[in-house]
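EI: anyone free to look at a 228-residue chain?
SC: sure, send it
EI:
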Amino acid sequence: MDTKTILPVLETNPVFAVLTPEERMMLQRAATINVFTRHQVLYKPGQPSNKVFFLLKGVVKIAVHAEKKDIIKYVVRGGNLFGESCLTGDTQRRDFAYAMDDQVEALEFDAQTLLTLMRSNFAFAQSLLHFLGERLRYTEIQLENVVLKDSKSRILEYLHQMGIEQGRRIGFETLVKHNMTHQDIADLTGTSRQMVTAVLNQLKRSNVLYFNRKKILLRDLNALPIAV
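SC: here you go
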């Protein structure tokens, strides 16, 4: 994708839709597009935090290292921002961003350009604050789940959320195409790979769902047990 073709992307995204045509043109001129391959690191702790990313294509996971394993904070899909901590005062990265697809495309914006637009366009500042608030609420919910719910409940809730956010209805069933390994789901839910495998196999034996490496077919999303 050429930078000249990104204006329609910005125009249709809720965060950037409040910008004037001149301001979107300013962003286009300041943006660069980079392509990353699967497992490639987009940024890591200790690096300068001076860029904000907007994902055009693919999937990116944001993670921290803890006890020789990754703890996934959240997964970013196309049409969403990440690396936004520089807008709230961080000068160095505190987490990792990994490409999860064979071809990930991301726009990179200089943080100072976005801060300049926030100062001159109050609606844009509000839009970004709303985005930051939603991400913070998501993180708080993840933390509450780890503290208050057992491993099986967290896995079931994640599968249900996958169905809502990524699923495609096929009759009464819901098809989720994904690139999450059992270890990825474990890292995201604060559980173990063995527990994820055991829960999926149990649901498969009960005909609640069918799964393979690339898809999960939920027989009835509303019947998926959220609490156990």
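EI: The chain has a mean pLDDT of 89.
SC: 👍
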